[in-house]
Specification:
- Catalyzes the reversible reaction in which hydroxymethyl group from 5,10-methylenetetrahydrofolate is transferred onto alpha-ketoisovalerate to form ketopantoate.
- Keywords: Cytoplasm, Magnesium, Metal-binding, Methyltransferase, Pantothenate biosynthesis, Transferase.
- Homodecamer; pentamer of dimers.
- Pathway: Cofactor biosynthesis; (R)-pantothenate biosynthesis; (R)-pantoate from 3-methyl-2-oxobutanoate: step 1/2.
- About 40% of the residues lie in helices and about 15% in strands.
- By secondary structure, it is α/β, with parallel strands linked by helices.
- The chain has one domain: Alpha-Beta Barrel (TIM Barrel).
- Strands 1-2-3-4-5-6-7-8 form an eight-stranded parallel β-barrel, surrounded by five helices.
- Helix 4 runs parallel beside helix 5.
- It is globular, with a radius of gyration of 22 Å.
- Bound molecules: 3-methyl-2-oxobutanoic acid (KIV) and sodium ion.
- Sodium ion binds next to loops.
Length: about 280
């Protein structure tokens, strides 16, 4: 029995300044299985609230949702480093709250780390978790869980005052011991500056090609939705493919073209070997 061991925080840290880390989101076992050979990191993002559950934002995502999808992704993957997002409301109150919920995610899913949308205030939570054995990925810039304060999804750090806020978020997460930091939706040169300054690898999404890795929401890059943010490159056209397949199935059912003989069972012939 061969057992492929998973990448560790050491492997992730070693990628700083080297070949870019490949990261994608997954929420279920088959998708995790398909991407596992290609990915360094798999993120069970709270984007699952929008991508899988049809919520208007990630604010409604629960611990139970993250754990259920985290378990599925762990079953489907073998070698990638798996990070599970801490959902809105599960870590902001206190270090204790953050630890109890992060520990629950680690224990119930078997994932390697958690991610926190880390406003500068969250540095205390990050340090608290890391000191107690839970690797934490930070997430700065556009923080989708803060959509109701921002008034929408909007790129950050394109003006002077915002640059300092984002830079401070990244510095705080780095100093607190985050093993990596996601930089989302920020001006290119700000992502460059953060990447050059922090000691841990940065993973960009709508950030810059100089980041130490890149992440996209898998269903966005596969073209499952009509709309995707500016920073998504479409590597597939899943929506068209699925629509065509389902349309063909519907037509075949209605015309009795499906099922054919090969897709049905005939009467079993008497078998001499069976009594
Ligand atoms: O929830 C998510 O998918 C994320 C990534 C886009 C970074 O946080
Ligand atoms: Na997220």
């Amino acid at each position: 029995q061969t057992r492929i061991s998973r990448k560790t925080v050491k492997d992730i840290a070693a990628a700083k300044g080297g070949e870019p880390l490949v990261c994608l989101t997954a929420y279920d076992a088959p998708m995790a299985e398909i991407m596992d050979p290609h990915a360094d990191l798999i993120l069970v993002g709270d984007s699952l609230g929008m991508v899988v559950h049809g919520l208007p934002s990630t604010v409604g995502v629960t611990m139970e949702m993250m754990i259920l999808h985290g378990q599925a992704v762990m079953r489907g993957s073998q070698q990638a480093f798996v990070v599970v997002d801490m959902p809105f409301g599960s870590y902001e109150t206190s270090e204790d709250q953050a630890f109890l919920n992060a520990a629950r995610i680690m224990k119930e899913t078997g994932c390697q780390a958690v991610k926190i949308e880390s406003g500068a205030y969250a540095a205390t939570q990050i340090a608290h978790l890391v000191e107690r054995g839970i690797p934490v990925m930070g997430h700065v810039g556009l923080r989708p869980q803060a959509i109701n304060v921002d008034g929408g999804f909007r790129a950050k750090g394109r003006t002077g005052s915002e640059r300092d806020i984002v830079l401070n978020e990244a510095r705080a997460a780095d100093r607190a011991g985050a093993f990596a930091i996601v930089i989302e939706g920020v001006a290119r040169d700000l992502a460059d500056e953060i990447t050059a300054e922090v000691s841990c690898p940065t993973i960009g999404i709508g950030a810059s090609a100089s980041c130490d890795g890149q992440v996209l929401v898998t269903q966005d890059m596969l073209g499952l939705f009509d709309w995707a943010p500016k920073f998504v490159r479409r590597y597939g056209d899943l929506r068209t493919d699925i629509d065509a397949a389902i349309g063909k199935f519907a037509a075949d059912v209605r015309s009795r073209e499906f099922p054919g003989q090969a897709e049905t069972y005939s009467l079993r012939k008497p078998d001499a070997k069976q009594p």
